[in-house]
Automatic annotation (TrEMBL), chains A, B:
It comes from Neorhizobium petrolearium. The keyword Acyltransferase does not apply. SUPFAM superfamilies: 6-phosphogluconate dehydrogenase C-terminal domain-like, NAD(P)-binding Rossmann-fold domains, Thioesterase/thiol ester dehydrase-isomerase. Keywords: Cytoplasm, NAD, Oxidoreductase, Plasmid. This is L-carnitine dehydrogenase. GO terms for molecular function: carnitine 3-dehydrogenase activity. The keyword Cytoplasm applies. Pathway: Amine and polyamine metabolism; carnitine metabolism.
Length: 496, 496
């Protein structure tokens, strides 16, 4: 995948900050310019949310974080950047002015994207010297989780620019969809505005309140649209007879006076008061930060669920996530400092997420094994058994596991795990893993596991290749000098 | 929760059949009337999809399935029913006629709901003798998974009827939302129609194709709406300043010519051809059955993800699922035949779902432990350690586990598990669980586990009460006569 080498963010509010988070978590350095006195604080908060979300989202090895530098001018920020993202307030004159300054200060090869949610790219690129590399890249909040960027070119944008932008978004986990023509508000905000206008009428006319309207959406078509959108959902509704049948069946409604959209509601003080009061009744018990946290956890859970879709291939945003993770695995987490083999290896830092706890808030039994398995995966990557190796047809499979539970972990608890190699030969690898409470260093659970190196197509164990054994050797030799941990060799219920 | 005792479904297409599936899977008998010659086949197919979905959706003990009886007349079908659901084709005269017949044939106390997606309840109840117990209960496809029913009363509907309907939907896992006033198409279809009209313009004007439009939805606000809907999402967008700020900021767009909804597109042959061709290009590689399967798996995954939301409390549809499951646990699966203790207990039948496999399609290591843990839960329920028992402050906790992997399971593989009690005293319970391939009876994995009875508040082991030990005793005594399974007492890597 063609990657961004260095990014610049002009405008560092919620949107610009979340772009910056996307970039730095994918290992890309960002130079940021925003004259707002609070910019550094806002970007820091957004980055904090993004890091928290990514820790729940993926076990793939994130590269070392890129660096954010706050610059004193647009010129300073864009220097050396090959992707510049403009996210200043939504006023045509302001945006056009900023984009023209960016254009003048950068290499003509650099891509320049605008986060505008509605302005036409032709209007924005009017005064540029190199307008062919300018486009709209309209993201959705929270930008660090939702993968969509609508890519829209203006009259002077080259088709190659849009293709290049699409390619460069993939390695940061985003899906650039290219629109055929520019219109104000593009596609997503057109659809949202239609629902918004109809929704305002429903509240205005007292058909329902805001909470009921939200319930209607989230208990029904919201969950259909999270995975399939409008047309594919209706294709299924049409049954075996297909889309034509659906259109024939539901077409007549178009001529019925079902929506009030032929008229536009007057958003006067009375309607604003009504909506604000209903919204307070619906959501006011929780602060915005809490709602953001819940939203992000839900989005993570939905994306992980979709990652398992279509027989494990991934579906919708889950497929984008799977591709992002594959990219991260292949990339292998980048250059990290050489681990120290003179003690059990600390391989994993994680946190008990919402999907890991039972109704009492305790970490569920099988999630411990998930952490043990993820820890073992980290060891395997360390000795060259990475994604490419497994895809080429060999791997290590677990054949036997012994687990002891020594303590409890609750929702939000930070954990880390260490691994000590106990014994190994050309086929066998036996090791001991411990999960710790990261605050107290108390051991919560231990596992002794035995793995065999296998030819996964033939389905039988075979000797590991020289390369892998060579990487394993210094670890095994160093760990052989360590004391054997208490608990090794136990059978279930054995007296101490 | 106030429960439906017996249901009648008048009309057995995709919607009526899915209502029937909701009822029978919640243990309610259904009498069905539909003169269509294919009705029995269609209902059977929908029920098959629903059973497949529920097997993935929940580990809670479903009650013994209700019975579906196909009747020869409306009169025969509605006899003795306390909930009658009408789902005949969407024509006012036909529906009114059917509803009037239902009314005449039933006890005046029975609730009568209509599945209409747009007709006004006042128009439908016009000729009824007991119109006060009639309402619209508008569900969304697939009815067996999506929890929403819009409850809408007509001029003659009593408020008590809507409350009673809401109460009776909860034990079948549905959320009835009550609208304040009737309008054609209610709330959900109003919003859908607004998006549909705007979407048709976007395709008509070649701004994008159907696939791009769907991608825009599913990679962005679709995932937001699956959990929160419109107003709560915008509340977050307003930030700490709240809903008023959001309204002030985005209100002006209402006066911009952003949507074309002031006009309605002509759905002529050219536009139908365009949409059908684009939809074929987008989704034609997969049949409708395959798309349905993928949709249901995704919905299951999304609901399970949302069940873990809000710190494990459940959020949105996940909270509805959690409440449904709690109801099932408390209900305890109803009367089942006495298990046979003279062999290891077959406690669980399941299937390898999409969320359980790695990218190779193999069941992931930690999901085996999930099946072992779920099997142990079934044993615990058998001896009275059920939801209420655990909530009251005592439980059995796993302290030690030994797992052997003997084979592999792939996506879709049917599995079952058996459990043999090895030893027990007043605090300790040691047992041996085996997971089998349900087609070949090959053992895929075994676990030996030790549990301790605990006071979960005090966090220490205590003797189990007499009741629990008394239920455990006959199982333990019968299993003591069985041979000790091969593998018991092993430590990791021990020679056979």
């Amino acid at each position: 995948m063609s990657s961004i080498q260095k990014a610049a963010c002009i405008g560092g509010g919620v949107i610009g900050g979340a772009w910056a988070a996307r970039f730095v978590l994918a290992g890309i350095d960002v130079d940021m310019y925003d004259p707002h006195p609070e910019a550094e604080r806002i970007v820091g908060e957004v980055l904090g949310n993004a890091e928290r979300a990514y820790a729940m989202l993926t076990m793939a090895p994130l590269p070392p974080r890129g660096k954010i530098t706050f610059c004193k001018s647009i010129k300073e920020a864009v220097e050396g950047a090959d992707w510049i993202q403009e996210s200043v307030p939504e006023r045509l004159e302001l945006k056009r002015n900023v984009i023209t300054q960016i254009d003048a200060a950068t290499d003509p090869q650099a891509l320049i994207g605008s986060s505008t949610s509605g302005l036409m790219p032709t209007d924005l690129q009017r005064d540029m010297k190199h307008p062919e590399r300018f486009f709209v890249a309209h993201p959705y909040n929270p930008v660090y989780l939702l993968p969509l960027a609508e890519l829209v070119g203006g009259q002077k944008t080259s088709p190659e620019t849009l293709k290049a932008a699409q390619e460069k978004l993939a390695p940061i986990g985003m899906k650039g969809v290219i629109l055929k023509k520019e219109i104000e508000a593009f596609v997503g905000d057109r659809l949202l505005e239609a629902v918004w206008r109809e929704g305002l009428w429903l509240i205005h006319d007292d058909i329902c309140d805001t909470e009921t309207l939200d319930d209607v959406i989230r208990y029904s078509f919201g969950m259909r649209w999270a995975q399939m959108g409008l047309f594919e959902t209706y294709r299924i509704a049409g049954g075996e007879a297909g889309m034509r049948h659906f259109l024939a069946q539901f077409g007549p409604c178009l001529s019925w006076p079902w929506t009030k959209l032929t008229d536009v509601v007057d958003l006067d003080d009375a309607l604003i008061d009504k909506i604000a009061a209903q919204s307070d009744a619906q959501s006011g018990a929780r602060g915005i930060r809490e709602l953001e946290r819940i939203r992000d956890e839900n989005l993570v859970g939905i994306m992980q669920a979709l990652k398992a879709g279509d027989g494990g291939q991934g579906w919708g945003a889950g497929k984008i996530l799977a591709e992002f993770e594959k990219h991260l695995w292949v990339q292998g987490g980048g250059a990290k400092k050489e681990p120290d083999f003179s003690a059990p290896l600390r391989l994993l830092d994680t946190k008990v997420g919402a999907a890991w706890v039972d109704y009492n808030g305790h970490m569920t039994e099988y999630r411990y094994l998930q952490v043990f398995a993820d820890t073992a995966d980290m060891l395997l990557r360390l000795i060259g058994v990475d994604f490419a190796y497994v895809e080429a047809g060999h791997s290590y499979y677990t054949v036997e596991t012994h687990i002891r539970h020594l303590g409890e972990a609750k929702l939000g608890q930070k954990l880390y795990s260490t691994l000590q190699v106990l014994s190994s030969d050309d086929k066998r690898l036996r090791f001991f893993t411990t999960i710790y409470n990261a605050e107290t260093n108390e051991a919560l659970a231990t596992a002794e596991q035995l793995m065999l190196h296998v030819d996964s197509k033939a389905g039988k164990s075979v000797a590991a290749p020289f390369d892998v054994l060579a990487k394993l050797k210094p670890i095994a030799e160093a760990h052989a000098k360590l004391p054997i941990p208490e608990g090794v060799g136990r059978s279930v219920g054995q007296k101490r």
